[in-house]
DNA sequence: AAGTGGTCTAGACCACATT
DNA sequence: ATGTGGTCTAGACCACTTG
């Protein structure tokens, strides 16, 4: 058709050096991620159509499409044929699908309810400093709660948040769905997470809170949640009872 | 350009009913999966170029491309720019990346070595019947082994295989990398797997084999491996020590 | 009927690897 | 120099949703 003269249109990067070739759709994708991170496109909102975005940015619709497809594959966008493209929300469905891997042995995954034990502010301990990239003088907000399914305690959870990011969260009530709160009130979108699992033995205190015998084995899940720009925003240490439930991991 | 008249070329499915629309690339993908399952394209082999495949099947190169891209995303194919498209192999790199989630706390994942404890044939127990879709009269081959890292026992593993599929495997030596053997000798490709994790307490026997104290907590990993056509082909029950290692799970 | 995303095609050109 | 996959474009048409 015609020559490509638009490689420079977006990012006037030096294309003469062969190192670091960045395809157009990747640059477009970066633009979109920025808009998501900046809240220009808020959770649940609808994006302009592919054609509009293509015209605005000055690339073909196919290039916009590739960028949007990748973001949808990363669960940051939701595409619905005939309706449009929307910013993904941290609703219960998504959390259950993407972040909550504990499933009853017989039955399907459900969203547990929570009982908050404590909310406190303290200096970050060694583990929190390392995980959240904090110094020994940084404060964290610690939320401790028990999560139950059908009235039976299942998880003892300790959530650690950098006070710098989430200051004030300790004042209000703690909703069951924290990620949705991070997004709505602090503009922080949890994009993905990494979990480290170990088998441990419950201490007397922990066992009491979960109403089981001390010495009961439990699954310790150490989760680090990352925001859209890859920064660590939450550490969550969970002790899970796995008598009647298991952690489901799909290897694809 | 010109009208589409090729929707019927591959699969003369009834396109008049609006239900069950199957895009062309999905049909092409199904053809390719069949060739992989039938061993027409063997592990490590190179595929014909996109253009050749497109001409052979009678679709555009873009349609072939979309099918190949999806298979590459599922780790069944490997695409290398400038070289070609190849059938994925179960080499150590892939297994470490896709199937071996146990990582030393400080350090990077490595491939453990194995010491075989026993190889036996027996009637499938209840768990094996359920997992592998067998009847109570079906035989399984059971391989029991200890896997160690730097000489320290890490995993006690029990592999259960349907004798119908893997008859004769009990005769030969048991290689460290079983999936590669399944592919080479039995034409069975493990495409993906599903793991159920629980925290348990080791029995005296198990603890002795792992050279730890009885009562030590361990991570029980119950893996079901599925072949290309989705059939269960291997059950693997692992008891993992998580004192100095953890199970890494990426939530994306 | 109009608008959206989804599919399919055709062709040009780019980046990469090998010969 | 050649061949491969990777990118980008342009346009047509299909499937789905909503007015």
How would you describe this structure in keywords?
homodimer, 252 residues, alpha+beta, six-stranded antiparallel sheet, two-stranded antiparallel ribbon, 9 helices, 10 strands, 29% helix, globular, DNA-binding
Quick structural summary:
With 252 residues, chain A is an alpha+beta fold. Helices cover 29% and strands 33% of the residues of chain A.
Q: Could you report the average pLDDT of chain A, rounded to the nearest whole number?
A: 93
Give the strand content of chain A. Answer: 25-35%
Structural class of chain A: alpha+beta
Q: Secondary-structure element sequence of chain A? A: HHHHEEHEEHEEHHEHEEE
Distance between the termini of chain A: 40 Å
Given as residue ranges, the uncertain stretches of chain A (5+ residues, pLDDT < 50) are 1-9, 11-18
Give your account of this protein's structure.
The structure is a homodimer of 252-residue chains. Chain A is α+β, with helices and mostly antiparallel strands and 252 residues long. Chain A is 29% helix and 33% strand. Chain A has nine helices and ten strands. In chain A, a hairpin with a 4-residue loop joins strand 8 and strand 9. In chain A, helix 2 packs across helix 4 and helix 3 packs across helix 4. Chains A and B meet through strand 7, strand 8 and strand 10 of A and strand 7, strand 8 and strand 10 of B. The structure holds a DNA duplex (19 and 19 nucleotides).
């Amino acid at each position: 058709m015609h020559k490509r003269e638009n490689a420079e249109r977006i990012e006037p990067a030096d294309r003469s050096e062969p190192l670091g070739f960045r395809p157009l759709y990747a640059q477009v994708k970066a633009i979109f991620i920025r808009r998501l991170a900046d809240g220009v496109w808020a959770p649940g909102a609808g994006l302009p159509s592919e054609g509009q975005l293509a015209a605005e940015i000055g690339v073909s619709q196919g290039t916009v499409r590739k960028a949007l497809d990748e973001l949808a594959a990363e669960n940051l966008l939701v595409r619905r044929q005939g309706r449009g493209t929307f910013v993904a929300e941290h609703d219960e469905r998504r959390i259950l699908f993407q972040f909550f891997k504990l499933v009853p042995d017989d039955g399907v995954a459900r969203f547990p309810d929570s009982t908050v034990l404590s909310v406190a502010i303290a200096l970050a301990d060694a583990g929190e400093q390392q995980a959240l990239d904090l110094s020994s003088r940084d404060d964290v907000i610690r939320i401790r709660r028990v999560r139950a399914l059908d009235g039976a305690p299942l998880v003892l959870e300790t959530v650690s948040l950098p006070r710098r990011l989430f200051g004030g969260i300790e004042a209000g009530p703690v909703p069951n769905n924290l990620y949705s709160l991070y997004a709505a009130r602090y503009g922080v979108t949890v994009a993905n997470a990494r979990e480290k699992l170990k088998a441990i033995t419950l201490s007397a205190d922990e066992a009491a809170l979960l109403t089981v015998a001390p010495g009961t084995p439990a699954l310790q899940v150490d989760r680090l949640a990352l925001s859209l720009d890859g920064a660590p925003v939450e550490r969550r240490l969970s002790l899970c009872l796995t008598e009647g439930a298991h952690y489901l991991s799909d290897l694809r």
